[in-house]
Amino acid sequence: MAKRKVDTENRGFHTRWESEYMFTEVAGKPVCLLCGESVAVMKEYNLRRHHETKHVDKDKNMDMKQRLQKVEELKQGLKSRQALFRKAKSQSEAAVKASFIVAEEIAKSARPFTEGDFIKNCMLKVCNAVCPDKRQLFLNVSLSRNTVSERVDQLSINLKEQLVKKGKDFITYSLAVDESTDTSDIAQLSIFIHGVDSSLSVTEEFLALHPMYGTTTGHDLYEEVSRCVNEKELPWEKLMGLTTDGAPAMCGHRSGLVERTREKMQVENVTGELTAYHCIIHQESLCAKALKMEHVMSTITHAVNFIRAKGLNHSQLKAFLSELETEHGDLPYHTEVRWLSQGKVLQRCFELREEICLFLESKGKDTTQLRDETFLCEMAFLCDITSHLNAMNQQLQRRGRVISDMYSTVKAFKTKLTLWEAQMRKENLSHFPSCQTMKAKLSTSVFPSAQFADKISVLAADFRCRFADFEAQKSRFELLSNPFAVDVESSPPNLQMELMELQCSDALKAKYAAVGAAEFARFLPDTMPKLRIQAAQTLSMFGSTYLCEQLFSLMKLNKTSHRSRLTAEHLHSILRISSAQSLTPNIDELVQKMRHHQVSASASASNM
């Protein structure tokens, strides 16, 4: 005979039980109005036994009218207690949520955990001035150093769990890896991921930051990257690309990170080829060195450092420029690691060249070279070409750039170089304003246009050489950026049939015209699976390690000389929160988890 199940008997609460046994129904359970205990099974026998065992003496002298009156009083008292409990519970959850919100803002603003106490004091003072009756609510918000650090860790874990969950849906992904040192001279390995799911939506997120306490060889880097991929449960067969800063430890042919990753994929029997790239922005910066005009920059840097290195010289120059009422009132520093600073220093020095010479002469410095016409022509050319390089650099630095768009930017610049070279040989300086200024002011010599045209030619040759690996992927990029203009015959055979169907579809052409190349890939129909996979692989690729460089800037904002003892775990949590783009912490979920944990802890304590 099958065992009876209580929940199948459809037992309901009877109104008469209120007056007879002093019980009422709360959330589907009978609850005693006299002691607050609940009975597990809604059965009259159980209610009667509870009443006769524990409360028979409390109402034996009451008549029915008194019983009904007593029941109403007890029910009103129960409702009041429930409302108070719900209010206290709501206020408690709100206080916890507020502490999470403040902790997230502290992490994003690179402030120390101790700022929580300062923020709370400010909140209380504002509360006293605006709504003093709400002071207790603000007092309930815990923002101590330990609480803030705990909240930051919980927010980081939540983001990591979301990323791991999203990673299970990736049909392909790529990694960007770079390495730098922090203020404690500890090497930090930064890893970012570009993941693409079946809907061709791109997730661009921080994957990990690993401190490297020992050596940073290719083997060490590979071990950290491999551990990270395995911890996040990312399948090796879906790894499409790996972009690095081009250092030997990253790209060494025998033992670099790239080569060891390829070996790992072979061990895992991955049939696809790993596409490795040297960061476009790094390569663009290296191309600039092909001009071999370091002597110009050295002379300018020497003059700027003489003025900026001493406080007196610097303040006197600013006063001097103020007296002359020049357009600019100061000189910026040039920092080698900040690539864009070179163009800014060159431009400012060229515009203030006469004033700088006068100031240096007043200090007894020789300015013969700074006044030399040949040097000034070289300075003007370097100023103009550097401004063009910086403009391209800034185009490449934006977040969320698709690699095909970055390649188009580089291709456009190479075309511009060809134009500038031809124009320079004809002494057409339309795109070189500083050179135009110098040519108009030359007194004795002729502007060396042919010499500068040769330098542009050398720069163009270096661009072609360094970006040869991107040129080899030209057909892949064109399939994403403009599939309707691709030559079908020269395309891979496995894509030709789907590509022909695509190019013959008027509806898809209209959609491409409406949404643009960047968004069009998501509208490729499911009947073109090979084109969708091809688009997903291209979308997943990193063109640069810009995200890693940006993370290192955040790292240096957080781990300063005043916070040099910040632990690796806390630094990791802070950077995950402050660099998050596609994901946001689910604070409501964290608050609910904490409430359930507290309830479980209370239940365990009561059973002890």
What does this structure look like?
This protein has 28 helices and 7 strands. It is of the alpha/beta class. Residues about 1-10 and about 600-608 have low confidence and may be disordered. It has helices at about 15-20, 45-55, 65-110, 115-130, 135-140, 145-165, 220-230, 250, 255-265, 280-290, 295-310, 310-325, 340-350, 355-360, 370, 375-395, 405-425, 435-440, 450-465, 470, 475-480, 495-505, 505-515, 515-520, 530-540, 545-560, 570-580, 585-605, and strands at about 25, 30, 170-180, 185-195, 200-210, 240-245, 275-280. The radius of gyration is 35 Å and the shape is elongated. The longest helix is centred in the first third of the chain and has 45 residues, at about 65-110. A 5-stranded mixed beta sheet has the order 5-4-3-6-7, with helices on both faces. The chain has a two-stranded antiparallel sheet with strand order 1-2. A hairpin with a 2-residue loop joins strand 1 (about 25) and strand 2 (about 30).
Secondary structure: elements and pairs:
Blueprint: H1 16-21, E1 23-26, E2 29-32, H2 44-54, H3 64-108, H4 115-130, H5 135-139, H6 145-167, E3 170-181, E4 187-197, E5 202-212, H7 218-231, E6 239-244, H8 248-251, H9 257-267, E7 275-278, H10 280-288, H11 294-308, H12 311-324, H13 339-351, H14 353-362, H15 368-371, H16 373-396, H17 403-425, H18 433-441, H19 449-466, H20 468-471, H21 474-481, H22 493-503, H23 506-515, H24 517-520, H25 529-540, H26 546-558, H27 568-579, H28 587-606
Parallel strand pairs: 3-6, 6-7
Antiparallel strand pairs: 1-2, 3-4, 4-5
Helix pairs in contact: 3-6, 3-28, 6-27, 7-9, 10-16, 10-19, 13-16, 16-18, 17-19, 17-21, 21-25, 26-27
